């Protein structure tokens, strides 16, 4: 185990093997190990990036609407007082939100929650 970890860090020498016939076998194992580790790590990076992308896409519409409302408020506050139009910019805003259905407000156990959570 320790020698395998040392090989990952670059401490690899064919001369350290036990016998003359095992040098080619040791080289073969090292190459196979490096290929498998590279494939596993690339799959992990792809999964992490996919989860981050999904999380960003879930919040994209909310951030867009928040930015749009912020621009409207900035515009309303920069206008001079005599030109304020209460019909276009009322002092109060009403927000309508959908009421969650009973029993459906939590994520079910069999529902997809991301690639990383599927690995755990």
Automatic annotation (TrEMBL):
UniProt protein name: Ion transport domain-containing protein
Gene Ontology molecular-function annotations: monoatomic ion channel activity
Lineage: superkingdom: Eukaryota
Primary subcellular site in the record, as a coarse category: membrane
UniProt-listed GO biological process terms: calcium ion import across plasma membrane
Subcellular location: Membrane
Membrane topology classification: Multi-pass membrane protein
Species of provenance: Phaeomonas parva
GO annotations of cellular component type: plasma membrane
Higher taxonomy: Eukaryota, Sar, Stramenopiles, Ochrophyta, Pinguiophyceae
